[in-house]
Design a protein that fits this description.
With 216 residues, the chain is mostly beta strands. It is 14% helix and 43% strand. The two termini are 23 Å apart.
């Protein structure tokens, strides 16, 4: 995993949600931090919320009460994969094999048949992350992989909570592009103007599905 994605130390990606066309989530990564801007275009006004963090921890957000979840792409390609995944409850001594849809997969963190423990599924051939389970009824899957700037990157995905699903698309804006450290400044995020608390279905789904039950 580190060999495949270790050099992916900066990127910008825009996530959109077919069920809520006016909503987008822009995620930037660089300088060992991530920054995200969630924009929700309602009938009366556009609401924007921001956060910055490191690993699986939010450091600052705007507004302070927004309770934004951790960057979704941090689960897909963390800074230090094994130790970061172990920090959210995955057991590095437990491994198995299975099929994700029709793709043979290597499973890190769970025995065959266990769909509740924190775990991650990889394509058995190219080690692209296919599915992350954060806990019971908390699942992220990534699909439609293609090579871009030398990396196998997903372009679609699904969040799943029990029977409820939320589809998303990923447009990669830049890969390994130099970004100013100020982009990831907690102080700058806190001083952002015009932030608000989103209230739409997509935002609430993200908050619930990406919540972490382990102490960070």
């Amino acid at each position: 995993m580190y060999q495949k994605y270790g050099a992916l130390n900066s990127f910008e990606a825009e996530l959109t949600f077919p069920s809520e066309p006016g909503t987008k989530l822009v995620i930037k990564r660089g300088h060992d931090h991530w920054q995200q801007t969630f924009t929700e275009a309602g009938s009366n006004a556009t609401v924007e919320a921001k956060s910055v963090g490191q690993y699986f921890k939010t450091i600052a957000q705007c507004p302070a009460t927004v309770e934004m979840p951790v960057s979704m792409l941090q689960f897909w390609a963390p800074d230090d994969p094994v130790s970061d995944w172990m920090s959210i409850g995955m057991n590095n001594a437990t491994k198995s094999y299975g099929f994700h849809e029709d793709t043979p997969a290597f499973v890190f963190g769970a025995e065959q048949g266990d769909d509740r423990s924190p775990q991650i599924w990889f394509d058995n051939e190219n080690f692209a992350p296919l599915k992350v389970v954060l806990g019971p009824q908390q699942e992220i899957s990534f699909g439609t992989y293609s090579k871009f700037a030398g990396f196998m990157l997903p372009h679609t995905g699904t969040l799943k909570m029990g029977e409820d699903v939320l589809d998303f698309n990923i447009q990669w804006k830049s890969i390994r592009k130099k970004m100013a450290p100020a982009v990831f400044s907690p102080a700058a995020i806190k001083k952002s103007n015009g932030c608000g608390v989103p209230s739409g279905h997509v935002y609430e789904f993200l908050k619930k599905c990406l919540r972490l039950n382990k102490s960070e």
